[in-house]
Write a sequence for this structure.
């Protein structure tokens, strides 16, 4: 796959993941449980596809080491923190109201994910072909 095609695929995957994340947040805040479960179920694999493509893209380019370290710290923190809203969401399935920590954990994950997308964008803008 050419660099341009890989970048196009990466950007499409990130855009898809971001749209699904926004939909997940919106449906959760609106308490549309079925729609929320569907958007989350679509978001998680979309996120991992974006991460996979980002890793493949990263093998072809050299990035500023400071931005790379910041980005990877945020990206790994986001991926690890995803367990929080997933577990609290599962615990909420049999409840009328969501688990009390679910919203906070979802917002923490979202903040880390957005920060990872921003730093990833900065890195791509300054990337040099190896």
């Amino acid at each position: 796959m050419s660099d341009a095609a890989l970048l196009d695929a990466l950007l499409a995957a990130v855009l898809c993941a971001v749209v699904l994340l926004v939909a997940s947040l919106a449906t959760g805040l609106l308490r549309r449980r079925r729609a929320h479960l569907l958007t989350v179920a679509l978001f998680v694999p979309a996120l991992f596809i974006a991460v996979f493509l980002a890793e493949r893209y990263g093998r072809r380019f050299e990035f500023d080491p400071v931005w790379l370290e910041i980005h990877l710290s945020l990206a790994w923190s986001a991926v690890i923190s995803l367990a929080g809203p997933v577990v609290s969401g599962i615990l909420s399935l049999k409840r009328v109201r969501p688990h009390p920590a679910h919203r906070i954990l979802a917002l923490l994950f979202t903040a880390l994910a957005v920060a990872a997308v921003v730093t990833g964008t900065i890195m791509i803008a300054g990337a040099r072909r190896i």
